[in-house]
């Protein structure tokens, strides 16, 4: 049995909103995690580690709060994540799910 992370949830701490992500190949062939409700991705960037990346604006929209890139593994780390959307920021808990 593999320990590979295939699915996870980002659970917003302020109101319990949940976003579900699934491991997929991106159009460029790299591996990422795509959000179920839209074309939003958590991807690996060498200088950043795992982040929510917006291709259109070429900017980071979310990232782990307590885990530096050099301490991240083959999947986005569990724990606190922070995001930014316009003038707002949110705190989430990332939770890996069983297959």
What is the structure about, briefly put?
The protein has 99 residues and is an all-beta fold. The protein has strands at 7-12, 18-25, 31-35, 41-45, 49-54, 59-64, 79-85, 88-97. The radius of gyration is 13 Å and the shape is globular.
Give the helices and strands, then pairings.
Elements: E1 7-12, E2 18-25, E3 31-35, E4 41-45, E5 49-54, E6 59-64, E7 79-85, E8 88-97
Antiparallel strand pairs: 1-2, 1-8, 2-3, 3-4, 4-5, 5-6, 6-7, 7-8
Structure report:
- About 0% of the residues lie in helices and about 55% in strands.
- By secondary structure, the protein is mostly beta strands.
- It has one domain (about 5-95).
- The protein has an 8-stranded antiparallel β-barrel with strand order 1-2-3-4-5-6-7-8.
- The N and C termini lie close together (about 10 Å).
- The model has no long low-confidence stretch (mean pLDDT about 95).
Features:
8 strands, 8-stranded antiparallel barrel, mainly beta, 0% helix, 99 residues
> What's the average pLDDT?
95
> So what's the oligomer here?
single chain
Q: What strand line-up does the widest sheet have?
A: 1-2-3-4-5-6-7-8
Helical proportion, percent range: under 10%
Largest sheet: 8 strands, antiparallel, barrel
Shape: globular
Total helical elements: 0
Structural class: mainly beta
Give the total of beta strands. 8
Tally of discrete structural domains: 1
Portion in strands: over 45%
- Which radius of gyration do the C-alpha atoms yield? 13 Å
- Quote the distance from N terminus to C terminus: 11 Å
Poorly predicted parts: none
Order of helices and strands: EEEEEEEE
């Amino acid at each position: 049995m593999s320990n590979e992370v295939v699915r996870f949830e980002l659970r917003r701490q302020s109101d319990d909103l949940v976003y579900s992500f699934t491991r997929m190949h991106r159009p460029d062939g790299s591996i990422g995690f795509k959000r179920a409700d839209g074309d939003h991705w958590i991807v690996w960037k060498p200088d950043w580690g795992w982040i929510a990346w917006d291709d259109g604006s070429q900017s980071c929209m979310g990232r782990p709060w307590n885990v530096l890139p050099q301490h991240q593994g083959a999947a986005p780390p569990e724990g606190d994540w922070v995001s930014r959307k316009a003038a707002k920021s949110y705190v989430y808990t990332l939770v890996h799910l069983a297959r």
